[in-house]
Amino acid sequence: MQRFILAVQHIGTSALTEIPYAALRQHRLTLSVLATVLIILSADTSIAADDRSPLVVVKTAQSDAVITQVPLTGTITSARVAKLSAEVSGQVETVNVEVGDRVETGAALIELDREIEQLVAVALQASIRQASAELADAKRRYQDARRLREQKSISENELRLREVEVEVDGAMLKQKQAELQRQQARVERHTLLAPFSGLISERLTEAGEWIEPGRPVLTLVAIDDLRIEFRVPQEFYSGINPQSALSVTLDALPEREFDGTIDAVVPVSDASSRTFLIHVRVDADDARMTPGMSVHGKLNLTTGRRGVVIPRDAILRYPDGRVTVWLVDPDSQPPTVSENRVTTGHGFDERITILEGIRAGDVVVVRGNESLQEGQQVSIQQRE
After folding, report:
1. What are the residue boundaries of the structural domains of the chain, listed by start?
2. CA distance 131 to 175
3. Are 336 and 323 in contact (CB under 8 A)?
4. Sequential DSSP letters for 40-66
5. Are 302 and 312 in contact (CB under 8 A)?
6. Which end of the chain is more exposed for a tag (fewer CB within 10 A), N or C?
7. CA distance linking residue 274 with residue 346, whole number of Å
8. Distance in angstroms (rounded) separating the CA atoms of residues 226 and 248
9. Element at 114 (helix H, strand E)
10. Helices and strands (H and E) in the chain: how many
């Protein structure tokens, strides 16, 4: 049996409806009826094509301040790093810390053998007691001489000699007391104390070693006062100030970005690299930072100019060097797109400056622009 097949296509599905040829004759379908069916099917297909218009996200190009973004690489450092050494020579008796230990200000880090110095202090204490006794005796003899002088029993010169003895013995006592204080201070210096709170990063001595003043024995790093040091090319020196915006990403936490504040600009250029140094502070919240970590930064410097700015995602680059964006025709309904060739400028904060090709107010496609065709109808999903 012959059959006449009508293909009815719907969005996403296809259904074939078979109508026997004899049934068509029986119901006497005319050509006009068939034409009507085909028109309906054609309209349905057109509606389905409209429904398949690609979804795009658009953004309006804006006139904004042009920013120069300078990529930087730096290192986390401590504002206070000290190589500690003893103030006196001696043999190391005890090392109280290990590498990695955290210490507080005034903590005893290393103790030297102080036995001989303590014996010297004991001898000075005995000498002070002797000088004190001699001074007391000189004062007694001077008082006796004064009474005898009142009675005209001794000469004025003899009285004066007794007075000088008091002064000499008193000076001797003060000298001995100063020597004892000096010796006690020397004994105290046989203990190396932490000058500030921090972390022991290096240990360069062991018990039993003889150390001299000036020889480093420990390295102490303050970890509560960290900063980032960046080397910046010298051509950007004039554009940097404490208000310059800077974002920082730790290599240990690449998924997080922190706002940085320029703490100091060191106006000394490195002649070998033609760079200068800036110190940056970061409020890292709960992020753990430690000296020596590498970081990356983006320094945003104002140029004083304005230009047309669009998101980077709107840009398409081709192997032949062409750079284009897709524009939405504002007068077409439904919306259609056209491709425009553009010249780009500085990029910053996921945006890029357009020097030629579009104007402020143009609507550009930022998502869904990978496979568009000239004059193609699109459906606008949302505006960023």
Report:
1. 3-51, 55-65+306-383, 114-188
2. 10
3. no
4. HHHHHHHHHHHHTPPEEEEEE-EEEEE
5. no
6. N
7. 23
8. 14
9. none
10. 4, 24
CA dist., res. 312 & res. 365, Å (int) = 11
CA 47 centroid distance within chain: 56
Helix pair 115-150, 156-188: axis angle to 10 deg: 160
- Fold match, 55-65+306-383 / 114-188: no
b vs e for 372-382, b when ≥16 Cβ sit within 10 Å of the residue's Cβ?
Answer: beeeebbebee
Q: Which of 280, 221, 288 is nearest to 250 (CA)?
A: 288
Instruction: Give the residue carrying structure tokens 């090392």.
Output: 95
CATH architecture of 114-188: Orthogonal Bundle (1.10)
Chunked mean pLDDT (size 10), the chain, 384 residues: 36 41 44 44 44 81 82 91 94 94 94 94 95 94 90 87 93 95 94 94 94 94 89 87 86 86 84 87 79 89 82 90 89 87 82 87 88 88 66
Q: Residues near 376 by Cβ (< 8 Å), separated by ≥ 6? A: 53, 54, 336, 337
Name the CATH topology of 55-65+306-383.
2.40.420
* C-alpha closest to that of 84 among 201, 225, 184: 201
pTM metric for this prediction: 0.58
